[in-house]
Structures are given as C-alpha cells and as structure tokens.
Design a protein that fits this description.
This is Leucine-rich repeat-containing N-terminal plant-type domain-containing protein. One of its GO terms (cellular component) is plasma membrane. Keywords: Cell membrane, Glycoprotein, Leucine-rich repeat, Membrane, Repeat, Signal, Transmembrane, Transmembrane helix. It comes from Urochloa decumbens. It contains eight helices and 71 strands. By secondary structure, it is mainly beta. The chain has a 33-stranded mixed beta sheet. A hairpin with a 2-residue loop joins strand 59 and strand 60.
C-alpha cells in the first residue's frame, strides 16, 4: 500500500473540526450556485426597458418586476453563454402575447447580446420599421421569429451579420394599406446576404410585399429545409438550372408570386421534398417526368400557375406518399392516367378547370379509401358517374359539375357517413334520383341542377336529411311533388334550409315548408305558380326579415302580400310576372329586377332605402310620365333600365353626368335634345336611347365618357354630321346610329388633329343604316378597326357584360343579320358586324374591309356603290352574313368567295353583276333570291345556264351528267341566336366511285 495517499476517515479528526469543515463547504457551494443562477443586472434592466415600450405591460407580462430574478420571468430563458461568467439570457419568447408597441424600446433588445433565440411573433408593433442597426450585436442568434408582428419597410443590412441563424421567420407582416394607398408590410428586395447563411434550415418570408427577384443562391443552401416566399405578389424569380443532389429541402412554397419559367428536370434531385406549391404564379411549360422521383412528396399544388401540362405524366402515379394534389387550371388534356390508382394516400384531388376527357376509370374504391375531397369540375369528362364515389368511407366533398357525364345515377351501397357536399350540376345525367341519396345522413348540399333527370320525386323525401341546408333541383325534367302540407306538428324536426332551388319544375304551388323555415336563397323561377305571393313564404315572419336572394321570376303571380317594407333583401327578382300597382322597395336592396310586369309607379321613398351600389331593372312595365327627379338623387344607383315603358319629356342631364354605369331608356316617348353639359364625371359604360323621339345633334360632351362601351341612339330623329369626335372614346365597342337623320360623309379622315385619337380601335359593332350618309368610304376608315382584325384572343372575355351586385348584366343590341332584325342578348366579343345599308354612299367598296378577319356580318345594301366585289373578301373566313344588294356593282362574283365556309346568308341581288355564279362551297346552298336582278349572271341556282363563252363555267354537260352532288347541312347554334352553318359536299362520280369531301 506504500506510495498511495492515505484516505482521511471521519474518526481521524475531532468532531468539531469536521463539522466546521462541512459548514464552510456548503456555504461555498450555496454562494457559487447563487452566483450562477442570478439574472445579470444589465440584462434585467434591458428587459424592463423593453417592457415599458409596450402598452399596458402589466396585463401581459405580470411577472416582469424590478428586483426579481429575470431568469424566472415569463418568456425568458437563461443559461450558460459563451465568453460570459455565470448565466445570461439566452432566449426570449414573447410570441402570441398580444403586446402592442409603436416601435420604441426595440434598441433594448440589442443589449441582450447573449440571445440565441428571439421571438416577437404575433404582437403588434404598429408598422414600425426594423432598426437599421443593432442586429450586428446579436451575433449568437440562431433563431429569429418576427412573424405577424406588424413590422414594415425593408430588411436592414445589419441583419446580414447573423451568420449563425438556423431559422428566420419574417412572415405575415402584411397589414394592408395606409391612408395614402401604400402597403404596410415588409417590402423591398429580398437581400442577397440570405444566401450566405450556411446554417439556415428555415427561411419563411411569406405574406409580405417583397419585390425584385429571389436570389438563386438561396436554393443552394446546403441545410435549408423550408423555403416559403408565398404571397408576395410582386416577387419574381425562376428555378435554378440545376438543383443540387443531396438537397435537404422539404418545403418549397412559391404560391402567389411572379415566379416564372419552367420546372427543371433536376427537380427530381430534391429527394426530401414533402411540399411543392407553385400555385398562382406565372410558370411555363409542363411537368417533367422526374417529378415521379420525389418519393417523399405529400403536397403538390400547381393551380392557376401558367403551367400548360397537356397530358398528365404517368410518373405522378409513383408519388405514393402524396396526400394533396391540386392541378386546377393547368391546361391538362386527355385522360387521367391509370397510374393514379397508386395514389392510395390521397386525401384531396383537385383537377378542376382543365380539359380532361374520357370516363372516370382512373380510380377505384380501393384507391380512394382515404379521399376526403374530390374536385373534377369544369372539364370534359364523359361516361357514367361511378357508384363507388358515394360509398368512399372518408369522403366529405365531391364536385363533378360542368362536365359531359351522362347516363343514370346508379344506386349504391354503404353510403359514405361523412359526405356533406355533392355537386353534379351542369352535366347530361338522366334517369331518376337514386333512393340511396336519401341515406346520405351527413349531406348538407345536393346540387343536381341543369341535367336531364326524369321521374317523380316527393319534395318531403329530402326533409329526412336533417343536416341538409342547400338543395338545388332546378332545370331538369323532374316532376317535383309538393306534398308537404302535413308538416305542421313535425316542423321542429325540419332541416334548416339555407338555399332551395326548384326552378323550371312545372310547379303550381309554393312548397309548404316555407311556412316554417326562412330560406336565405330561394329560387322558384320558371314555374306555373300564380296568384298572390304570400307573406308566409318567409317562414311566417312579418318583420325584420333579412334574406340574401329571392327569385320568383317567370311565374304567374299577380300581386304581393309580402311585407317588403319591413324586410332586407339583397337580391329580389320578380320579373316576367303580371304584378300590378306601385313598385315595392325593401330595405337596402342591391339588385331588383321587376321587369316585364304591370307596375305603374315608383315610390318616392326609393332613395332613402338604398344605401349601397344598386341595380334597378323596371323595363317593360306600365310606368309613365316624366323621369322621376328622385333618380337624380340616388347616388348609389349604378344600373337603371326603364326601357319599354311610356316615359315622356326630356332626359335629365343628371342621369348622364353622374353615378350611372348602365342607362337604358329604349322604346319610350322621350323627346327634346340630349343634355350637353356632361363633365368629367361621366362613368357610363352603356347609354341606350333607341326608339324614342329625341332630336337635335349629339352632344359633344359625350366625349367625356371614357368608359363608354355601348352607345345606341337608333330610331330617333337625331340630325347632324357623323360624330367623328367619338373616335377618341378608348373603350367603345358598340355604336348604333341607325334610322335617324344624320347626313354627310363618314369616310374622310377628320380635319382636326388629335394626338389622342383612338379611331375606333375597340369597335366591334357599328350600325349607320337608314340615314342620309353620303360620299365615298375612305379605305383608312376600316384600317383602324383593330378589334375586328383579331381572330381570337385568349385573354379576352367571352361577352360584353358587367358583374353588378353579384349578377352578370349583359347588354343587348338589335342588328340586321342574315336579312332579318335580331336581338343579340349577349354581345359576344367575337361578334363583329358592320351595317352601312340604306344610305347614299358612292364609289367603290374599300378592299381594306377584307382585313377585318373576325367580321361576322357585313351589310352595304341599298346604296349606290360601283365597281366590283373586292376579291379580298375571300379572307373573311368567319363571315356568316353578306348583303351587297341594291347597288350598282358590276363584274363577276369572285370565285374565291366559294372558300368562305362560314357564309350562311348571301344577297347580291339587284346589281349589274355578270358571269358564272361560283359553284362550290356555300354557294351551292343559296337560292335564286340571293342573285336575282342581275341580268348578266348565270349558273345554278338561276335557271339561266352559262354558255361556253361565259368565264368560269365549271363543268361541261358531260361532267354534269356523270356527277351529282349531295349536300348535307350541319347547323350548330351558339345558344344566343347566332348560328354557324357548314355544308358538307359529297361529289359522287359514277365512273371509278370517286368521292370527295369539301
């Protein structure tokens, strides 16, 4: 045992000495412990200073009191700090404490130089800017969270010194707009120095107002797991050419930015990626097949992003962890690949608003056991609706609306217990409603409208679905039996219906359920219900009724018993009935359509009941007298249609110079001149005075109506020269001056010099017929009609319409088309018409008309045009109606016009044309009336045969005897009275059985 120290035993020392030794040892230990746990005075002082910058800090930080240990304060964490003896404040978490500050005191934070974690998230710093300096003192910071804290302005350069950052969250600092219209948010470019934070794993900059371009170097950060820059609408950028192999990226969210360009094939290198969201951006190209290499991907959303995918790559079916797939409005065509059946973890599939075709065969019951939401609306899907869909055990929402699904709805077993919403409207379904639907006990919304469903259904059957709140059966062939008179005592168990659509069901009475429940959105339009509209239709309520939409139009009602004066109705449509008396006005309406009734007067209290933008349609009633002055005071009135009444007197200037967007007064007895004192306040989009007795000249102050799109003063007594000053109106699309007393030339370039002249660049319908215009037509005039030269525009709306108070209002115009007057109730952007008929125009027809490639109708009849038919008309491939009759045209009908396959109506009668009528294309469909009154014309359909000397004789007698033509007509209506015609010609030769199709 020699050489080893001897251990001291307790019995080696006297007891008092041992006790004293233990006391001193414990005291030293306690002193050391106290020294290590106490909060540093300088940091406690900094925290108290920060506390004072908050409003009412005592409510949110009650433990922060002087002369107490700050390490014990809420939100404060202390620990060992590098280069500092004892403990120090290493973390400060004030997130979600609803603290309010106006920016003062932030400098106190920078005295906490030992901070490694800092969170001020979810508080309100009142739009204060981040301090320009101070962050450089927090060199140890690894986690910084300033999300939803009410900061604004640019990221300070001093933040670039935080090289140890692991997580940076500046998201949700967009607080809206200041009084001057500026955005209160973090803004400016995203700093390049973020790409130098090599330890960064989380970078969240979402929901701000950052702009410029996202630094590409950020994609190369080796440890980055989360990159979220979504909802920065002005932030641009593009993917790097090559994603690094071995990337740690798990979340990539670029939603709602200006991110552009294609997805590189190297996207497949992101093996750890779980979330990819590029929706609502401006990408291009399709999806690379390498998307299938993202084995960890669970969320994919490319909706409305500009990507034009075409056929869906089958590689998507390899993403077996995929839970949410959203590809809305992505230009998808063709069928969904069968590999989608492998996506067995899907909880949401949304392929809406594409052009997907084929039947729904890409999935099965086993494939979709986890599916909760299925959205395939607005495609071209065909075939039947698979029965298994309604049995999926987790399904909550299904929308197959607006497709071409056909056939009967099948019965199904094991109804889904969670299914809440079913949208099958706008398809071609037939047969009866399956009884299985009444076993979907969780159903809240069922929309089967606008199909071809047949059979009989008892309305009371639906009341067994106690959760049902929205039911729409409108526009089918169903017979709906209203058999619910017995409800009475059982009314307490009725579902609380919010929306009920029973339009066009041949119903003769109002469902009795409306005695007991107040329906917020009711559509009983297009039925056979007559008599009085009863007060009990509002669940028996007589006062303080507040409903959204009531549509009782197109019935046989004769009177109203509703207490409208005590009700608030947003949307009320009583049009096309036979209701008499004064017009009833509910509280705060925004849409009232009382047209096509027998209403006789407008109450004086109209203005006081309207407090928001307002749509009022009173057309085709028995209203009479002068225009009520109260309409001038209705500052919220946006649309006023009092057409087809018996109003008389002058047009008040207040209706043109003020608040009205749509003003229609056609077919009344208005007289006098139009007011000429309009100023810059004119906001009108439509002005229609057609069919009155207005005289005088058009007021030049109309040139202040820069939003004017439709101007119709046809069928009046207006005189003067052509209003060339209207050329400066930048949005004018429809100009109708027909049947007035205008005179003079229209074809000359206006004398005055106007640098701002737009020269009818947007004009698509111009009707100058039945006036006394004269002179020649200048070729320049038609060269300026740029809107008629464009055959198609992908970004253009389909129709000229306005969304007013939640309903699309469509302008109408009457044009002479295919030899007859038609009312175009939906002015399609592609519907371009020129009518200069019944005037005194002379000279030749300008060949520049041949450049108007989207022209549908051209009428130059009843003038004194000379010369020949311009062969350039053969370029008008969309022309459907051509009338050149009753002029002095000479020469031959250009053979090239036979190439106009859309030409359905032609009239060149009563001219001086000669030679052979073209014998191909649509010319084989025209009758004698198209060509009569031209002594020099010959060939079919005229009885006069062409001699051998006639130019253009197409066939010899031998050829005509050995060949005959079968003409089959195919007409496709547009649904708005505009037909498109095509003739399919089969020429059959007896020798050799030769067939040809033109």
């Amino acid at each position: 045992m020699s050489g080893q120290p001897r251990r001291l035993r307790a019995d080696d020392a006297p007891a008092p000495l041992l006790l004293l030794t233990l006391v001193f040892t414990c005291a030293a230990f306690v002193a050391a412990a106290a020294a290590s746990s106490g909060c540093p005075a300088d940091q406690a002082s900094a925290l108290l200073r920060l506390r004072q910058s908050f409003q009412q800090p005592g409510l949110n930080l009650p433990s922060w009191r002087a002369r107490t240990d700050c390490c014990l304060w809420e939100g404060v964490t202390c620990g060992a700090a590098s280069g500092r003896v004892g403990v120090a404040v290493t973390a400060l978490d004030l997130g979600g404490r609803t603290l309010r500050s106006r920016g003062g005191g932030l400098d106190a934070l920078f005295r906490l130089v030992t901070l490694r974690r800092l969170s001020l998230a979810g508080n309100d710093f009142g739009g204060a800017s981040l301090p320009a300096s101070g962050f450089e003192r927090l060199a140890a910071l690894t986690h910084l969270n300033l999300s939803a804290a009410g900061f604004a302005g640019q990221v300070p350069a001093s933040m670039g010194t935080l090289r140890e950052l692991v997580s940076l969250d500046l998201s949700d600092n967009n607080q809206g707009y200041a009084a001057d219209g500026s955005v209160i948010a973090l803004s400016g470019p995203i700093p390049e120095f973020f790409a130098g934070f090599k330890n960064l794993t989380v970078l969240n900059l979402s929901n701000n107002d950052f702009n410029g371009s996202l630094p590409r170097g950020i994609f190369q950060l080796p440890r980055l797991r989360v990159l979220d820059v979504s909802s920065n609408s002005d932030l641009a950028g593009s993917f790097p050419p090559e994603f690094p192999a071995g990337s740690s990226l798990e979340v990539l969210n670029l939603k709602g930015t200006q991110f552009s360009g294609p997805i590189p094939s190297s996207i497949g290198n992101l093996k750890n990626l779980k979330t990819l969201d590029i929706s609502w951006s401006i990408g291009s190209g399709g999806i690379p097949a390498s998307i299938g290499d993202l084995a960890s991907l669970s969320f994919l959303d490319l909706s409305s992003s500009g990507y034009q995918i075409g056929e869906l790559p089958a590689a998507i079916g390899r993403l077996q962890l995929l839970s949410i797939l959203r590809l809305v409005d992505c230009g998808i065509s063709g069928e969904v690949p069968s590999s989608f059946a492998n996506l067995i973890r899907l909880t949401e599939l949304d392929l809406s608003r594409n052009n997907i075709s084929g039947p729904i065969t890409f999935c099965s019951y086993e494939s979709f056991l986890n599916l909760r939401r299925l959205q395939l609306c607005c495609n071209s899907l065909s075939g039947p609706v698979p029965s298994f869909i309604f049995s999926l055990p987790q399904l909550e929402f299904v929308s197959l609306m607006s497709n071409n699904l056909a056939g009967p709805l099948p019965e199904f077993s094991n109804p889904s217990p969670f299914l809440q919403s079913v949208y099958l409207d706008y398809n071609r379904l037939n047969g009866s409603i399956p009884m299985s639907f009444f076993e979907l006990t969780g159903l809240q919304t069922l929309d089967l409208s606008r199909n071809g469903l047949t059979g009989t259904v008892e309305l009371s059957s639906f009341w067994k679905l106690t959760n049902l709140s929205n039911l729409c059966l409108s526009a089918n062939k169903l017979t709906v039996i209203v058999d619910d008179e017995h409800i009475g005592s059982s009314s307490a168990s009725l579902p609380q219906i919010n929306s009920l659509g029973l339009a066009c069901r041949n119903m003769t009475k109002i469902p009795s359920i409306l005695r007991y429940i107040l329906v917020d959105d009711l559509d009983l339009s297009c039925n056979q219900i007559g008599g009085t509209i009863p007060k009990w239709i509002w669940g028996g309520q007589a006062a303080n009724v507040d409903v959204f939409k009531f549509n009782l139009s197109r019935n046989k009602f004769t009177s109203i018993d509703l207490p409208l004066s005590n009700a608030s109705v947003y949307y009320l449509d009583l049009s096309f009935n036979s209701i008499e008396g004064p017009i009833p006005i509910p509280e705060s309406p925004q849409f009232l359509d009382y047209s096509n009734n027998l209403f006789s007067s407008i109450p004086k209290y109209l203005v006081e009941r309207v407090s928001s933008p307002f749509f009022l349609n009173l057309a085709n009633n028995t209203l009479h007298g002068g225009i009520p002055p109260m309409l001038c005071n209705a500052s919220n009135l946006q649309l006023l249609d009092i057409s087809y009444n018996r109003f008389s007197g002058h047009v008040p200037s207040c209706l043109l110079d003020g608040h009205l967007t749509i003003l229609k007064m056609r077919q009344n007895q208005l007289e006098g001149t139009l007011p000429d004192d309009m100023k810059g306040g004119c906001v009108s989009q439509t002005i229609d005075f057609n069919g009155n007795q207005i005289e005088g000249q058009l007021p030049r102050s109309l040139s202040n109506c820069n939003n004017l799109e439709v101007f119709d003063v046809g069928n009046n007594n207006i005189s003067g020269s052509f209003p060339s000053w209207m050329m400066k109106l930048p949005k004018l699309r429809v100009l109708v001056l027909r049947s007035n007393r205008f005179s003079g030339a229209v074809g000359k370039v206006p004398v005055e010099s106007d640098q701002n002249r737009t020269a009818f660049l947007t004009l698509q319908i111009i009707d100058l017929a039945s006036n006394n215009f004269s002179g020649t037509l200048d070729s320049w005039w038609f060269e300026k009609l740029k809107a008629m030269m464009v055959t198609s525009r992908n970004d253009a709306p389909l129709a000229l319409e306005n969304n007013l108070s939640g309903k699309f209002y469509r302008d109408t115009v009457v044009v002479t088309y295919k030899g007859t007057s038609i009312t175009v109730s939906k002015i399609l952007m592609a519907f371009n018409v020129i009518d200069f008929s019944d005037n005194a125009f002379t000279g030749t027809i300008p060949d520049s008309i041949g450049r108007l490639l989207s022209l549908r109708g051209l009428n130059l009849s009843d003038n004194t045009f000379t010369g020949t038919i311009p062969p350039q008309f053969s370029d008008l491939k969309q022309l459907e109606s051509l009338d050149l009759s009753s002029n002095h045209l000479a020469g031959q009908i250009p053979e090239a016009l036979a190439s106009l396959t859309s030409l359905a109506w032609l009239n060149v009668s009563y001219n001086q044309l000669e030679g052979s009528i073209p014998q191909g294309g649509q010319f084989l469909t025209f009758t004698n009336a198209s060509f009569e009154g031209n002594a020099g014309l010959c060939g079919k359909p005229l009885f006069k045969q062409c001699s051998g000397s006639d130019k253009g004789t197409p066939h010899s007698e031998h050829e005509r005897s050995s060949e005959y033509t079968i003409v089959m007509f195919c007409f496709a209506g547009s649904g708005y009275g505009l037909g498109f015609a095509a003739a399919i010609l089969f020429q059959v030769a007896r020798r050799g059985k030769r067939w040809s199709v033109c």
